[in-house]
């Protein structure tokens, strides 16, 4: 139900923002060229008024499908938004045509700015790209308004082609903003000169913004990759400074490369730990759904058991040839195989008892018997495992007798096979 409400809210916001964009382009042109030049726009004015009126009533009532579940209460329909919506809804063109009051339609752009801000709060991917798109959007809209202002100050164009006049104004506006100024279109009156000064000031401010922010925007398009490259540069410098052997450097670089491919350089546990308990449980169960679904004894387990095990699992990665533990070591954890293959070796380090694969678990024998490891386990390829600590393991066995009995039974079977 929430997803459907959110979808309806987004669709309606899209319709309102599209109408607002069209109005922001059409209203200044109509005021500049006059009513007769854009008479066919009357149906659009009627549609705009109807859409804005419906939106005003909906936002006043605030049904559940219009309220974003992500938005805090303080962002609800406040008094100043009520005023802007009322002024933008009033169709001044029908009873005060050709007056600057028609520009009050543009107050609805406050809604568009709010929409852009909400996109940022949602934490969507590639925010840097969208930020650049938003900048281009406002720039193009500003150029359009400045061109309309130049037309309003210009000479008589009643006998000229309106499209040619508008293109000429755009040409002047862009050349002035970019500080090119070819000199083929120049201000002749005092009003035009003052207007040109204002446009040039806007152009300087625009360049300052671009120089100060575009590099940051482009760098923020892929922040994880940028951070990964910086970390790799630091790591390479450190290894060279400490004269770490080339073979070991290669293994370290391979590990970080694999970690980047799997997690984009983010610490899964740290990110999850910042969530509230209810969301943390949902996210953990989702992330570990593959290994939970592959472990045989968890398929019929209770939700409480699965939840407790999933919350206590700690992700670990082993590279090809890494030894998870050796025979004779003290046991502190058991492991679940999420992805990869490992081999179980006898104490001689040569004899292979068995090969572990996705969904298998190991290391519980020494925990149950409270003894040292009876075998060694070595990774055959890159392996994603989940580790479960000894104290947590013992607590789960005490709370869930059926699970304890199943683990004891499997332990006896492995011991009978000489593992």
Structure description:
This protein folds into four domains: 1-124; 126-218, Helix Hairpins; 223-263; 275-416, Jelly Rolls (Sandwich), CATH 2.60.120. Helix content is 61%, strand content 9%. The protein is built from 17 helices and eight strands. It has helices spanning 2-33, 42-61, 79-89, 92-95, 109-121, 127-153, 162-177, 190-219, 223-241, 246-263, 268-273, 277-287, 289-294, 303-312, 364-369, 390-399, 401-416; strands spanning 314-318, 323-325, 333-339, 342-345, 352-356, 361-362, 376-379, 383-389. A hairpin with a 6-residue loop joins β4 and β5. α6 packs across α7. Residues 64-77 have low confidence and may be disordered.
Provide the descriptors you would attach to this structure in a database record.
419 residues, elongated, alpha+beta, four-stranded antiparallel sheet, Helix Hairpins, 8 strands
Q: What is the topological layout?
A:
Elements: H1 2-33, H2 42-61, H3 79-89, H4 92-95, H5 109-121, H6 127-153, H7 162-177, H8 190-219, H9 223-241, H10 246-263, H11 268-273, H12 277-287, H13 289-294, H14 303-312, E1 314-318, E2 323-325, E3 333-339, E4 342-345, E5 352-356, E6 361-362, H15 364-369, E7 376-379, E8 383-389, H16 390-399, H17 401-416
Helix pairs in contact: 1-2, 1-5, 1-6, 2-3, 6-7, 6-8, 9-10, 12-14, 16-17
């Amino acid at each position: 139900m929430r997803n459907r409400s959110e979808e309806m809210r987004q669709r309606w916001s899209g319709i309102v923002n599209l109408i607002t964009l069209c109005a922001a382009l059409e209203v200044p042109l109509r005021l500049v060229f006059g009513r007769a030049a854009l008479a066919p726009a009357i149906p659009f004015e009627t549609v705009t008024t109807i859409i804005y009126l419906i939106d005003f009533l909906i936002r006043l009532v605030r049904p559940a499908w219009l309220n974003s579940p992500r938005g805090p209460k303080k962002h609800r329909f406040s008094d100043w938004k009520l005023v802007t919506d009322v002024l933008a809804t009033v169709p001044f063109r029908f009873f005060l045509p050709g007056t600057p009051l028609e520009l009050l339609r543009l107050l609805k752009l406050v809604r568009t700015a709010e929409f852009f801000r909400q996109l940022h709060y949602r934490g969507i991917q590639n925010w840097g790209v969208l930020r650049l798109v938003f900048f281009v959007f406002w720039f193009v809209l500003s150029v359009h308004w400045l061109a309309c202002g130049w037309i309003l100050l210009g000479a008589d164009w009643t006998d000229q082609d309106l499209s040619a006049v508008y293109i000429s104004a755009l040409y002047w506006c862009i050349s002035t903003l970019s500080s090119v100024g070819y000199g083929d279109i120049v201000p002749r009156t005092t009003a035009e000169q003052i207007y040109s000064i204002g446009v040039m000031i806007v152009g300087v401010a625009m360049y300052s913004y671009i120089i100060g922010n575009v590099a940051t925007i482009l760098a923020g398009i892929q922040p994880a990759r940028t951070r990964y490259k910086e970390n790799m540069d630091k790591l390479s410098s450190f290894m060279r400074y400490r004269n770490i052997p080339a073979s070991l450097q290669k293994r370290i670089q391979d590990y970080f490369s694999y970690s980047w491919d799997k997690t984009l350089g983010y610490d899964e546990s740290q990110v999850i730990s910042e969530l509230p308990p209810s969301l943390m449980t949902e996210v953990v169960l989702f992330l570990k759904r593959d290994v939970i679904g592959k472990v045989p004894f968890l398929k019929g387990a209770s939700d409480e058991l699965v939840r407790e095990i999933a919350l206590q699992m700690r992700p670990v990665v082993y590279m090809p040839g890494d030894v998870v533990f050796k025979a004779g070591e003290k046991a502190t954890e058991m492991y679940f195989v999420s992805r990869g293959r490992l081999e179980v070796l006898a104490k001689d380090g040569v004899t292979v008892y068995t090969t572990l694969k996705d969904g298998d678990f190991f290391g519980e024998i020494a925990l149950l018997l409270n003894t040292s490891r009876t075998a060694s386990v070595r990774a055959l390829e890159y392996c994603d495992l989940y580790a479960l600590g000894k104290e947590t393991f013992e607590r789960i066995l005490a709370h869930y007798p059926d699970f304890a009995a199943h683990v004891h039974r499997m332990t006896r079977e492995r011991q009978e096979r000489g593992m």
